[in-house]
Structures are given as C-alpha cells and as structure tokens.
Amino acid sequence: MWFFVQKTSDASYLDQHQVKIWKEWTNDQNNIGKAYGYQAGKKVRHTNEHIVDQIDYLIYQICHNPASRRLITSWWNIDDLDEMELEPCWHSTQWLVKEGKLHLIVTARSSDLFLGWSFNVFQYYVLQRMVAQVTNYDLGTMTCNIGDIHIYDRHLDMIARQIDSPQFAAPTLWINPNIKELSYFTINDFKLIDYQHGPTLKEEVAI
C-alpha cells in the first residue's frame, strides 16, 4: 500500500496505521528519502501522450501489451541512491503473462532471514494478487531471486525459539473482489481469515 498505491516515501501513512517497521530508516523529515515509494511515484514513462509513473505504466502494459518482456519495475535508480535512507533491498520486479496467468519474479540484493524474508515474500504475494485482480489475470507463480540471504548472530537464539514454536495452518487472505483499479485499494480491502499465531518474537534490526 505504501509503495505501490500511495507511492510515497513519507512515513506519515505508516504512522496513521501504527506501522513501525521502517522507523530505523526514517530521517528527520519522517521519510526514507528518494527510496521505494518515491521511485514508484516518479513520472518517467510515456504512454498515450501522457507521462506516468512506472506503476501505472506497468498496469497499462500488462493490459495492452501482455506479451511484453519489458514488464519491469525498479527502485534501483543510480541517480538517486545517495539520497535514499536505505538502498533498496528488494529492488526490482518482472511480470510475465503466460497462458492467461500473471507470473512475478522479484529480485533482492539482500534479505534478513529472520526479520525481513518472510515479510517481503508475503508482501509481494499480496501485490501479485492485487495486480492480477485489476488486470483480470489468474495468479501464476512467484519467483524470488535473492543475492544474499543471511542470519545475524544476534538472532540465533530467537530463531531457535521460532523453530520450536507451535505450527498452525495457513490463514486465508481475502482481497475485496470489487476493486478493479490498483489506486482504489485501501487497507480495509484485505482480511486474514482464520489467522492463528504463537507468542510474539521480537529482535532488533541490524542496520
């Protein structure tokens, strides 16, 4: 929602929803600089004589040119890297339409296994569901290419506790089927049904 719908690096949207996972990288202006949502909202692509951002361009191309092999978004803008509070970890997506299904490839330079990996994988699964819904395609595969996935020494004890924690059946993710435009999604259009969990396990982010 923050990156792909709100298209902003301003953390005020997160504050409104009591989301604190980005606080370690938020600057004095309560944003993360020219990272992620800033790159999503930049007007950089031309279509139908209009300049649009790369998200709107992606949706347009999936709908009108689904055979394209250029259905890509990227946060890794070398002109802006020095003005980002964090250089993007999960930095690009490629979308492929094959036999009526929308497939997604996500590429990351780095991933913290305990605190980041599962969060990011689920994040992009939700995004894939959203994009498939608004472009009227069935859900295809999701592939994650990760250059460096790692565990920090400080997280080892907590990971051991996590491994020994009780296991639960996966919940069902409900997404409002009436939403047909990506920009129309709100946080209220998502529900986790039959979600169960064990004790909360917290650790510090390694910055």
Structure described in brief:
The chain is 28% helix and 24% strand. With 207 residues, it is an alpha/beta fold.
Arithmetic mean pLDDT: 95
The CATH class assignment is Alpha Beta
Strand arrangement across the biggest beta sheet: 3-4-5-7
Name the poorly predicted regions. Answer: none
User: Helices and strands, in N-to-C order?
Assistant: HHHEEHEEEEHEEHEE
Tell how many strands the DSSP assignment holds: 10
What is the total domain count? Answer: 1
The major pleated sheet works out as: 4 strands, mixed
Q: Based on the coordinates given, report the CATH architecture.
A: 2-Layer Sandwich
Walkthrough of the structure:
Keywords: Methyltransferase, Nucleotide biosynthesis, Transferase. InterPro entries: Thymidate_synth/dCMP_Mease, Thymidate_synth/dCMP_Mease_dom, Thymidate_synth/dCMP_Mease_sf, Thymidylate_synthase. Its EC number is 2.1.1.45. One of its GO terms (biological process) is methylation. Residues 2-207 form the Thymidylate synthase/dCMP hydroxymethylase domain. The chain has 207 residues and is α/β, with parallel strands linked by helices. The protein has one domain (2-193): Thymidylate Synthase, Chain A (2-Layer Sandwich), CATH 3.30.572. Helix content is 28%, strand content 24%. The protein is built from 6 helices and 10 strands, in the order H-H-H-E-E-H-E-E-E-E-H-E-E-H-E-E. It has helices at residues 2-6, 12-16, 37-41, 54-64, 113-135, 156-164; strands at 43-47, 50-53, 72-74, 90-98, 101-108, 111-112, 138-146, 149-150, 172-175, 190-193. The strands form 4 sheets. A 4-stranded mixed beta sheet has the order 3-4-5-7. A hairpin with a 2-residue loop joins strand 1 and strand 2. The protein is globular, with a radius of gyration of 18 Å. The model has no long low-confidence stretch (mean pLDDT 95).
